[in-house]
Amino acid sequence: MGSGKILVAQGGGPTAVINQSLVGVALEARRFRDVTRVYGALHGVRGIVDEEFVDLTRETSHNLELVAATPSSALGSTRDKPDDKYCAEIFNVLRAHEIEHFFYIGGNDSSDTVRIVSEQARAAGYPLRAIHIPKTIDNDLVGSDHTPGFPSAARFVAQAFAGANLDNAALPGVYVGVVMGRHAGFLTAAAALGKKFPDDGPHLVYLPERTFSIEAFLADVKAIHERHGRCVVAVSEGIHDASGKPIATLLAREVEKDAHGNVQLSGTGALADLLCDEIKAKLGIKRVRGDTFGYLQRSFIGCVSDVDQREAREVGEKAVQYAFWGDRDGSVAIRRTGFYSADYALLPLSDVAGKTRTMEDEFIAPSGTDVTDAFRLYLRPLLGSGMPDAFRLRCARVAKILKP
Amino acid sequence: MGSGKILVAQGGGPTAVINQSLVGVALEARRFRDVTRVYGALHGVRGIVDEEFVDLTRETSHNLELVAATPSSALGSTRDKPDDKYCAEIFNVLRAHEIEHFFYIGGNDSSDTVRIVSEQARAAGYPLRAIHIPKTIDNDLVGSDHTPGFPSAARFVAQAFAGANLDNAALPGVYVGVVMGRHAGFLTAAAALGKKFPDDGPHLVYLPERTFSIEAFLADVKAIHERHGRCVVAVSEGIHDASGKPIATLLAREVEKDAHGNVQLSGTGALADLLCDEIKAKLGIKRVRGDTFGYLQRSFIGCVSDVDQREAREVGEKAVQYAFWGDRDGSVAIRRTGFYSADYALLPLSDVAGKTRTMEDEFIAPSGTDVTDAFRLYLRPLLGSGMPDAFRLRCARVAKILKP
């Protein structure tokens, strides 16, 4: 063991439980006698190259617990994706500070960052142990049953659709809710868990795993509206046509891309408005409302899965254990071992980095606009305890007198 | 006392606690020996003219309690506003069913409906006791300290901004959240209760009580962004220019109006997108995101103020007591009697109907883009118990080595 200094950082989009993983690292690391300092880099890899570190060892464990329960990245995040030059800068800083253990909490892109840093360190002969700690509301990491952050976001989406369904039942019409998820439909599919009675919405769920056609969409909405007098629709922001072109880009608005080349889909209500305008124009339905859940679904304070909280904490703790008791770099993965129980494994970084999991076929109904019971069984335990429930009146109709 | 039949209905936009009032009426009414039947009209006044009644007396009290805790109007709602002809139809139905007590749970427009029905009944010599039970997330009824439904929606907005602020701190930029509220800014102002530390957002709050100017808005955002490196903005959907024209209608999109002549403002992300586009174009800030809270804020299941729940229940109970032990029609109002305690009063319908309360000047900071401590003191107890709290790291910076 060298200096005993470890570094932890958070990358990518924040989640409701990402600080559980941070605090899991910080508190578990201090149980190892070789650890002298736990540094946190501000705003991910950007904070490493800028030497923007805080000393988490100087935090009280009490405040760390309070921060753990607070959503969004307490250290700040970044969308930077290091290339070779960027990584060379990272090594210079790690060397200068004698840091030999690096923990990066993030999703797809962050796991790729860890892989590059790990490979560059090996090539440079620098003794770095680099561990990727999973986090993404998209649930799109391969090798994991699910990813920390997804269950809480899924809980928000399920609760939002449970409420939107009740609202739509009171004032009938068409309601379109647009949910985050570029390539993977898991979060959009979570809308189905907001449904209780057979005639409840969401009646239609559109996932990026299936090709989206405006014509088929309008026919589906028309059929549901004729049957129920109303229609609640869950749509992924990532829906695309047969050529793979996002439906959101069918609009005239300019397209914004991030450092990873991803088209910006969130933070605008354009897709919901486009779909609502189509329904009004082509189906002649008057009351059509669209909501884009946007950033609420990943950072809402006070809608968190307790299962998600404890697992996010554990992946942080396990990462430290793998780093100090193991002999290789890797990515921490969640495995399902019971209904419901989880355990953890360390996967090779190359098995996870840059790969995207999408919804398995067994989770998507043959219609393409609903989920299966397999998906409901998969997701329900992750949503945690205390899920609010919806009840309805079931009393008898009174006989009409004037117009019987 | 006549037939002993009473009728209750729900009008206008649903809230998270509107069924508490419904169940308050249903259960309290059965304690009066003269009451033989408690009917509920489906979809408000529309259900009365269509004779669409259910017999709430045939509900179990257990299920009524479960429905009370479920958001959105369990009987269904309507946007219909009865005129003279409509009211004549209502009387025919009430007469035919020998209903002599009418309770209507709703907001501004619903209180006006009760006033019309009450006056028409008196003119027609029909012995009707009509009581308006307050409900609106807009908090815009005159004569009440606040209205049931507002505290729970305010809690959602405060929690949403607390989370959005954390998200924006992690990935800095400009965030614009658009909140419901056509004429009254109370719900938008609730965003300020999501703020904890002095540099937290929302940094700017735009209310319909003040004239909105795009130029002043851009200057405000620029100043905050330069000071904090980020900016979180709360905007009411009802913001308007000096002529009173809604900013939302500056867009090319066609304008939809309801039966009350109100321009449709919710259910579209257009206003947020307009403001974000202006910020990107005029200020050159790259990361600009807009969310429109839409229907989530009034029907989200699982984000309810316990204070709101109990008051919504009590206005329903008090309405029945006023009806049977009082001698006049009226509108139930909430009065604040302590910090915090509430009591109830019955106001003349003409004091409430068709009038709109807006935010008092003492609640709005002189800058016009913030609330006062008087507003914070006003709102905080209404949000109820168990409000989630946000914590941050406060540990020491590590000295730089390479670039000290």
From TrEMBL, chains A, B:
Taxonomic path: Bacteria, Pseudomonadati, Pseudomonadota, Betaproteobacteria, Burkholderiales
UniProt activity-regulation remark: Non-allosteric.
Positions annotated to bind substrate: T136, I137, D138, M180, G181, R182, E237, Y295, L296, Q297, R298
EC primary class: transferase
HAMAP family: Phosphofructokinase_II_B2 (MF_01978)
Family: Belongs to the phosphofructokinase type A (PFKA) family. PPi-dependent PFK group II subfamily. Clade 'B2' sub-subfamily.
Record's subunit section: Homodimer.
Protein name: Pyrophosphate--fructose 6-phosphate 1-phosphotransferase
